[in-house]
Design brief:
With 85 residues, this protein is mainly α. Helix content is 84%, strand content 0%. The protein starts with a helix and ends in a 7-residue tail after the last helix.
Length: 85
């Protein structure tokens, strides 16, 4: 069952990388990058289940927080606005 989930995540990563390369606008590429961060959190969660090590969950939480902050920063950059606006 877990291997099927890993294959689904790998396929999703491939589609996100394709979208980042072939995206028609910068916001399309930004959304693909955001989804890629979410998929990495999924990989960390599956790795935690497979190895039964809890520090992978800590990595997943950190990755999710950094992905959120990065998405906000990229959105501000694409709007040509400063971080204090």
């Amino acid at each position: 069952m877990i291997t099927v989930l890993i294959y689904i995540l790998v396929l999703s990563v491939a589609l996100c990388i394709y979208r980042m390369g072939m995206g028609s606008t910068p916001p399309d590429r930004a959304v693909a990058l955001d989804i890629l961060g979410t998929l990495m959190v999924g990989f960390c969660a599956l790795l935690a289940i497979l190895t039964e090590k809890d520090f992978y969950i800590n990595i997943a939480i950190s990755w999710a927080l950094l992905s959120y902050v990065g998405t906000i920063a990229l959105g501000k950059f694409l709007e040509n606005r400063g971080f204090d606006e």
